[in-house]
Amino acid sequence: MDLSVNETKMQVTAADDTPLLWVLRDHLGMTGTKFGCGMALCGACTVLLDGQPTRSCMMPISSVAGKKITTIEGVGATPAGRAVQDAWLTLDVPQCGYCQAGQIMSAAALLRSNSRPSDADIDAAMTGNICRCGTYPRIRAAIKTAAGKLGATK
Amino acid sequence: MSAVMKSPVDRPGLNRRQFITRVGALGGLVLIAGAADVVKAEEARKYGVDSMPHGWSDNPLAFVAIGEDGIVTIVVHRSEMGQGVRTGMPLIVADELEADWSKVRVAQAPADEQKFGNQDTDGSRSTRHFFEPMRRCGAAARVMLEQAAAASWGVPVGEVHALNHEVLHRASGRKLGYGALARAAAQLPVPPRESLRLKEPARFRYIGKGRTHLADGGDIVAGRAHYGIDTRLDGMLYAVVARSPVLGGKVVHYDATEALKMAGVVKILEIQVNVPSARFHPMNGVAVVATDTWIAIKARNALKVQWDDGPHGAYDSKAYRAELEQAARKPGQVLREVGDVDGAMSRAARKVEAEYYLPHLAHATMEPPAAVARIVDGRCEVWAAVQAPQVTREDVAKHLGLPFENVTVHVTLLGGGFGRKSKPDFAIEAALLSQRLGGKPVKVTWTREDDLHNDYLHTVSVEHLQAGLDAGGKPVAWLHRSVAPSIVSLFGPDPKHEAPFEQGMGLINLPYDIPNLRIENPEAVAHTRIGWFRSVSNIPHAFAVQSFVAELAAGARRDHRDYLLELIGPPRLIDPTALKDSWNYTESPQRYPVDTGRLRRVIETATRQAGWGRKLPKGRGLGLAAHYSFVSYTAAVVEVEIGSKGELAIPRVDIAFDCGPQVNPDRIRSQLEGAVVMGVSLASLGEITFKNGRVEQDNFHQYQVTRIDAAPREIRVHLLPSSDWSVPLGGVGEPGLPPIAPALCNAIFAATGQRIRQLPIRDQLASGGSEAAGR
Question: What is the pTM of this model?
């Protein structure tokens, strides 16, 4: 099967029902996308499919053919992704860091569609991403920082 | 350096490992030490890091490497699970070393306590136990660089000094970079410890400054950071295990017909670990080994396993709660008694009684347990996210029948720990499976369901409190009965009582000014694996005591803060042993007395910063709680807003914290922010229940945790200033947690008049609730 991951064509052989998550991690060796629940409940596995945040743990590989997949390894190539990563570093958002790939993917998708998100917008976009360490206040602040930076460069 | 235990009875300060060894050897009887024994053995006691297995090392040859390119690599021997230890430890070394932080790289130590000192990353003690050894380590390396420079210039070493990655000779203006000096410095002997001059705190470059960003930040945000679950080896196979759903259960029979039909299934293997106690052993089960994780999960789910549940197959949370309540309503083992409680209670103007219930909690680390192992030529290598690397190495060696030296444990980043990853059962599983597969590399991944079904859960407890009050509403008599299964049940016969380290977490060591007081601990039997969960027994003890004090204050129509301060009494230093606390987080009672002045100050700070007493609109309220734990002092004021249908929102939390001097203030702040969120989470949503011996929650839809929309909108951390570096350090990772749940419930009372006596809060507000603790 042919996949487009981070603007690169890739070939994999996996059963049709294999979730994209495990194709990325086990077949392509791209371990930045994390396993957290397997039921699209925690957001650790979030990737972008044609720019839309998607839980890769429930997305069978057969449904992603022809779509552009963006993962944490590639999101820095987009302006929103870069701004989010920078803000995350400026505010030292991560604690254990495990959920942060998913958080960053959701935040990047939010800022791509909404350059000045309100607190309610942030809640709506980020509530699918669990952080057990409790970095939520810094995630909120970093999204606003990134939005400010993106706005300033426009 | 290593701790040698003399008397078998007096180890109330047992740390996890000594404790396990000891309990194994003596059948679990050791923890009920009488106070007299403790006093007798006092002289032989070692405290703090000296009491830990393999103690400490400050050897720069173990921790520091300097390349000829000037890059300084600092080895971190404690596990990073979000507390920031991979930033905090190196910055201590780098400061004394006068290293330029931009030229510092961090490396992770494998399990090797003989070389590095104790590696058990638990008990909120990495920084407080290793601050001084790490300072000496950096200072010794600095002296070696200075000596090398002085020798190369032929000047006395006293004429040179190190500054920001260079050694300077002021008289001649000469200087040499660390890279140029590295080779010569490495040839020199390590200077004697006594000869080292540590920096004056005024000259600290990084310590206490907050100028250092996260060591792993760049890797984390780019998806390059390596957690246990991310390990990949050539030819690696993937395993998922069906484990006994009940503690001590066994496989009677299994049918793998359907599983074996699936393409990519390599092998089905039964894991049999029939051992007398749960300890950190894997559970009995059936493993599916496959060519990727997804196939292994599908095939595991297709297994048909018939279990013999064993003696815990009837564990039922509703029935168990009733048992605990019954036990809590009758006298139990007396842990501490002051004055005449019964007499004072009978003479009291008024009597108040309350009972609190706190359920099991799962750690639910975002990275579920996962490990990789392979065996080549009789040598096993393990890659795992573990808090206890040395224990992992010891246990893997025992299970494989290999010499300890033939096992290597590589410690990855931990995607959350919270105590779960102190237990290496999952790493042992990987090693056992690799052995059965002829040494092939194999990764064991726990699904979220596995994680919730087979965790080492936080205990469950009923806390029963009674107070006799004088005419002014002040307690003249206090009775606290705590009933909870003990962590000690993991290691041998169930003691059915809380161990000294559990009692010392806010039960026995109540530092209040009450003339007649009794602490009791009736029996409770464990029916599942009970484990350390961030702040451990402080959670139920602080919840009960801090809720009860608020109830008493309300009953007396007194301001809660004023009432609490009065109960604590005047500032004074209390010897923890005078509170019958012989444990005190392993620390010396002289060096770490309970300081009620510091407890008062965090309360005063949190309430002042929160605007305590300010007028709030209807449905809003402020709640306070304070707690001493991990030799630090915390107070929190939570502000709640309760909607007309009982919706709970938390606009703001003010948390004041005194841990003594602060090595890396930003990570202290982040730990407190995280503790607030975790405290809100366990108070509002957290509960694991059992039926027929089995956990009823499968995944995050049933075991809910707080998400961003329900997290406090603003968390304001107030660190009490401390510039006196002679004050010993307190713990940071855990002490933020205990006061949050009671402060939240006290705020709910302030807003609504509804008293929450059982956690989680969940839908109790919607129903309008009742004061009764029963369901």
Answer: 0.95
